[in-house]
Amino acid sequence: MKNENSPGIKEIAKLAGVSIGTIDRVLHNRPGVSAKTKEKVLEIIQQTGYKKNILASRLKLAATRKIQIACLIPEIKDKSSYWKLPQYGINKAVAELKEQGISISYYYFNSFDPRSFEEQSNEILKKDFDAIISVPFFKTESNQFLQKLEESEIAVVFLDSRQELNFKANYINQDSFKAGQVAGRLLEGLLKENGLYFVINIINERGIQVNNLQREQGFRAYFQSKSNPGKDEIYTINLPFDDHLDLQEIIPKVIERQGPKGIFVTNARSFRLLDLLKEYEDTELFLVGFDLNEQNLAYLKNGKIQFLINQKPEYQGYAAVKGLYKYLTSQDQTELNIDIPVDIIVKENAEFYMNGHMTP
Amino acid sequence: MKNENSPGIKEIAKLAGVSIGTIDRVLHNRPGVSAKTKEKVLEIIQQTGYKKNILASRLKLAATRKIQIACLIPEIKDKSSYWKLPQYGINKAVAELKEQGISISYYYFNSFDPRSFEEQSNEILKKDFDAIISVPFFKTESNQFLQKLEESEIAVVFLDSRQELNFKANYINQDSFKAGQVAGRLLEGLLKENGLYFVINIINERGIQVNNLQREQGFRAYFQSKSNPGKDEIYTINLPFDDHLDLQEIIPKVIERQGPKGIFVTNARSFRLLDLLKEYEDTELFLVGFDLNEQNLAYLKNGKIQFLINQKPEYQGYAAVKGLYKYLTSQDQTELNIDIPVDIIVKENAEFYMNGHMTP
DNA sequence: AATCTTTTCGTTAACGTTAACGATTAATAA
DNA sequence: TTATTAATCGTTAACGTTAACGAAAAGATT
After folding, report:
1. Which member of A21, A80, A252, A343 has the greatest number of CB atoms within 10 A?
2. Facing residues of B237 across strands?
3. What is the Cα–Cα distance from A195 to A160, expressed in whole angstroms?
4. How do strand A155-159 and strand B343-345 relate by DSSP bridges?
5. B5: which chain A residues are within 8 Å (Cβ-Cβ)?
């Protein structure tokens, strides 16, 4: 059962009339080989289509120097923090790649404080990491970080959200605009023509997040693209969230309107809204929200939330590590940019997507 | 950056006071080691939690004997055959595992002829395969096949559908009952109370397929579980499909009824139905179907189909190979049984799921 | 021309596992 | 007892890649 295997370094050496040491030097761009022989070797590599055996390579390297990845994400304050989810996926991927020689180091920043991001990113730069997984929360600070990383040729993958930065980076995240469009489609199906809609942005002291804004834009774009646009009413309500939500604004605008209403909450906190709307249970609300946290799932189960959109945070982390491994071992960058599908969750299919199910 | 690596075979040998050859014999259950030393070695393996390095193992073994997988699926007649999709995923996984030493051999049967399944499965049994990927289309023939495979301890993974067989096997497929429930939920959202529904089973000469039946059952179960069951009307129509669909039955029952109607087509052929209903365009139909074939997607795009359910056929094949590899190299069976999520597809998120997107 | 640098290259020992091949000891037969 | 066979075990070379080490050749310096 011996097969015509792809050529190894030994075959290349024989064909080029040199030793495997020289081939290795060419492959790794190390000095100590004359221009002439280098050219010859590269030609043979081209012709034969030599591909290094990652198995053998990692077997050797895992014992000497691990692939070191740093992960810089927001602090995980409580047990149900969103950021536990990508971390779960990252840890899973690292565990799977354990014997390939890989290590992960976590750094945390305060998501209300750009300076903490800067401090932590500087800590990372002091070390000798091969790649970074992070989140483009703060525009200027992310740009600074990217600039320094570009100089030292360290790969970066951003999770969760995307914004225009001055340096190219890799993104594994959901297209929030498209997610907003999907939300529009789903609510329209429930309300039909001439619907009444409310986009609820739950904002913090730093204002609205880029993800949420893009979701709203997508939502509105969906209704604009209808054959009879303008027949629907869409209102945006920005609710500040510090300790608690203040419903002063929402009560007259939403509750006191007649007929069915479509509510689109652009972040993970739709459950907060519903917690406070308990006393208005007779209002006919249709709600689409984001993320499969415990509270949202409870409302999905009892029918207060019709649809949830999942952005597969666990898989984002998982895919980032796997993608980086592939890139660092094979120079294959294709898996570092993933447009996460807009998963639609209803009561009946919710279980599949919980507990960090890692299937596509 | 040298790390406390998990112990290798050499450490075990030293601790047990024997040579690595003996350890290897114990690990592979090969003869030539006395009961006493075997016991001792096993104890050390227990204590240290030794795990073999798959990297090194496959590096060695890939050169001598490949992992050989046979895949027995229905014939692929035309370019848009459903069975091209799992095959795509299988080939992708095999390509990724190429240097690990793996090979795939395809066998095809005629899905209308159980005897062709039997013949092909006998062909497979003549060879020396390590594992089988197939489809439990024919109950008695699948049972026969499983029995013979069990004797020779060959692993089996069934894709696509599930039915009760006399021998245990692994399944990577979507729970069709749950998919039917989801379809019920989606159509109900569009029709609201007291809806009028039609379940369309498109059947062939061998009768209704098990998947389709389970989907119908799930659909009906959904409406049974409503708080006010019995208010909805649900009719089942079995349409024979040989060369073409005959709409004689469907016209009076569906088209001539007043008001909006929900249509649930339990297989991939919803486009066939719509092809024939072109002349009745003014009827208010809401349609949920299965599978992202080209024709269904076209109807999704132009709004004739509201929702499609995706069963990720490419991923099923992909996961089968990856799961088998993990099982055959690490005795880890956990990835051989996957309950594929019921992906809900609308016009706005369809693109993510096309072209065999392999992300969870 | 002889010595010293520098450049260029081949040799070799690992990484951890596998399995063929011998070597040693124990068990049986003569 | 000695010869023969069987059971038990250690040694070794390989899988393909990596990189340290040192040898040889070429170049520069007195």
Report:
1. A343
2. B200
3. 31
4. unpaired
5. 62-63
CA distance B232 to B235: 10
- In our burial notation (b when 16+ CB lie closer than 10 A, e otherwise), range B26-48 reads beeeeeebeeebeebbeebbeee
For B197, the enclosing helix (H) or strand (E) is strand B196-203
Closest CA to D9 C1' — which residue?
B22
What b/e string do you get for B137-173 counting C-beta neighbours within 10 Å, with b at 16 or more? Answer: bbeebbebbbeebeeeebbbbbbbbbbebeeebbbbb
Closest of B266, B171, B164, B271 to residue B214, by C-alpha? B266
Q: b/e map of A71-110 (b: 16 or more CB within 10 Å)?
A: bbbbeeeeeeebbbbbbbbbbbbbebbbbbbbbbebbbbe
- Segment B237-279, tens digit of pLDDT: 998 877 676 777 777 777 778 889 999 999 999 999 999 888 7
Compute the distance between CA of residue B146 and CA of residue B328 in angstroms, rounded to an integer.
Answer: 18
DSSP single-letter state for residue B5? P
Quick one: tokens of A138? 């703060």
Using an 8 Å CB-CB cutoff, list chain A residues near B346. Answer: 182, 185-186, 344
Query: What single string gives the DSSP state of each residue in B282-311?
Result: TS-EEEEEE---HHHHHHHHTTS--EEEE-
Is B1 in Cβ contact with A66 (below 8 Å)? yes
* Residue A45 predicted with pLDDT over 60: yes
What is the value of pTM for the model shown?
Answer: 0.94
CB A53 within 8 A of CB A7: no
Question: Helix or strand or coil: residue B165?
Answer: coil
Beta bridge partners of A108: A73
CA dist A28 and A21 (Å) reads: 11
Query: What is the amino acid identity at position B297?
Result: L
Determine contact, residues A193/A233, Cβ cutoff 8 Å. no
CB contact under 8 A, A349 and B319: no
Q: Is the C-beta atom of B56 closer than 7 angstroms to strand C?
A: yes
A208-247, pLDDT tens digit by residue?
899 999 999 999 999 999 888 778 999 999 988 776 767 7
Q: How far apart are CA A142 and CA A166, in angstroms?
A: 9
Rounded Cα gap, residues B305 and B285, in angstroms = 9
